[in-house]
């Protein structure tokens, strides 16, 4: 049981889950201040979302292709070259 810190990506118990308690407080303040003083333009945010969506589509397509290859490998064993029996 516990929670993950979104900043340092570590897992802490509920008692130490807050960033200020386990030591990420100053870094988060610095990052939030930077985001407030220097916001990203809407176009940049849109482009980042487009890239993220494209990566999701690519991952889904690769997964589908891998599943298809696995099905061919397991189901296509009997179809191939046939040998003729001798007299």
TrEMBL record:
It comes from the Eukaryota. InterPro entries: AN1-like_Znf, Znf_AN1. Gene3D superfamilies: AN1-like Zinc finger (4.10.1110.10). SUPFAM superfamilies: AN1-like Zinc finger (SSF118310). One of its GO terms (molecular function) is DNA binding. Residues 64-87 are annotated as: Disordered. Pfam families: zf-AN1. Keywords: DNA-binding, Metal-binding, Zinc, Zinc-finger. PROSITE patterns: ZF_AN1. Residues 1-32 form the AN1-type domain. This is DNA-binding protein SMUBP-2 isoform X2. It comes from Drosophila kikkawai (Fruit fly). The lineage of its organism: Eukaryota, Metazoa, Ecdysozoa, Arthropoda, Hexapoda. The gene is LOC108078536.
């Amino acid at each position: 049981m516990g929670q993950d810190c979104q900043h340092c990506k570590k897992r802490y118990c509920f008692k130490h889950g807050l960033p200020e308690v386990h030591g990420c407080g100053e870094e988060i303040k610095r990052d939030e201040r930077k985001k407030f003083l220097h916001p990203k333009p809407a176009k940049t945010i849109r482009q980042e979302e487009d890239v993220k969506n494209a990566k999701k589509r690519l991952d889904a397509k690769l997964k589908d292709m891998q599943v298809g290859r696995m099905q061919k490998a397991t189901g296509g064993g009997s179809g191939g070259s046939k040998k003729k029996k001798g007299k």
